Amino acid sequence: MSIAFILSGLGQACIYVILGTGFIWLAKQIDDRRTKGFNDDDHIDDGNVAVGLRRAGLYLGIAFALSGAMTGSSKGFWLDIVQLVVDGLFITGFMFFSRFINDSVMLAHIDNDAECIRKFEQPDGTVKTGNTAVGMVEAGMYLATGFILHGSFSGGGGTFLQGILSAVLFFAIGQITLLILGLCYEMITPFNVRDEIKADNPAAGIGLAGSLIALGIILMSSLSGPFTGWINDLTGFFIYAVFGIVMLLVFRQVIDRLLLPTTSVAVEVSEDRNAAALLVTESALIAVAAIIAYAM
Fold it and tell me: How would you class 188 by CB atoms within 10 Å of its CB: exposed for 0-12, middle for 13-18, buried for 19 or more?
């Protein structure tokens, strides 16, 4: 491999990095304008973890999605750049639509923006700003959406229009699948998930966010690869979605018993509000999801 080839590749990589950073900056500008009622930068400077989490999830989700758009066979550097710009605009729009779904459906009756700047009095009398649990769920939704979009935009096959239509379709179906998982999670959980999240219980936020991220990883794997036809791709996605939800719900119980032998997730969330315990169990669930994804 010649030095000229290496330098050319690094130069092209720099352009991709600049473009990716540009889309993250664009997302920041859009979110700043969307939340005119408060200044996100001021809240982040003041240590508002809820606002920091939702912004971190947005930026990481966009990066994961863009990395999928960068895969596949090249059609020539400048054509690849044009397609990446188009894909990036779609991805940015999808991420904000995902936020809307999270706010209006996943966390129905909870105003995410209001909760993220809400003040909570602590047991020691101090006041904390921002519902960390809501910030965690929103970040989890962004990350899960980023994984789904990574799979939707990766690979190749089909025409440019088919690629865009496929991404739009699987984004929509992916969001529905995430909502179904959220509903199943609420049904098998002995406490009221939304009430705990609204009460700023970080353990509850980690629990739901972890489940969303884990399913997003599995769905990413099911979507990755070339376009093989609408029937084949839709059938495969449906099978993987059902399989993923079932496996995650089953392994959640297994992990609960293996990693918390003297207690349970329900106790750690609703009674102890133990974020540390949920970080352990949700990390294990995401690890299992990664193994499932790469084993399929």
Answer: exposed
pLDDT in tens, 70-102: 886 777 888 889 989 999 999 999 999 999 998
Report the domain count for the chain: 1
Mean pLDDT, the chain, rounded, equals: 89
CA atoms within 13 A on the CB side of 226: 7
Residue 33 is part of which domain span? 3-295
Reported as a pLDDT band with limits 50, 70 and 90, residue 63 is very high
What's the rounded Cα separation, in Å, for the pair 108 and 112? Answer: 9
Provide the H-helix boundaries in the chain.
3-34, 40-45, 49-69, 77-101, 112-116, 132-153, 160-188, 193-198, 202-223, 230-259, 265-270, 275-295
Q: At what angle do helices 77-101 and 160-188 cross, to 10 degrees?
A: 30
Tokens encoding 139 = 């970040």
> Tokens 């859009």 belong to which residue?
30
Strand partners, 119: 129
* Cα 207 to Cα 286: distance, rounded to the nearest angstrom: 11
Q: What is the DSSP letter of 121?
A: E
How much is the pTM? Answer: 0.92
State residue 200's pLDDT score: 94
pLDDT in tens, 110-142: 999 999 999 988 777 788 899 999 999 999 999
Instruction: Count CB-CB contacts under 10 A for residue 8.
Output: 12
* Two tokens, residue 130: 């921002």
**175 contacts 94 by C-beta, under 8 angstroms:** no
How far is it, in rounded angstroms, from Cα 116 to Cα 135?
A: 7
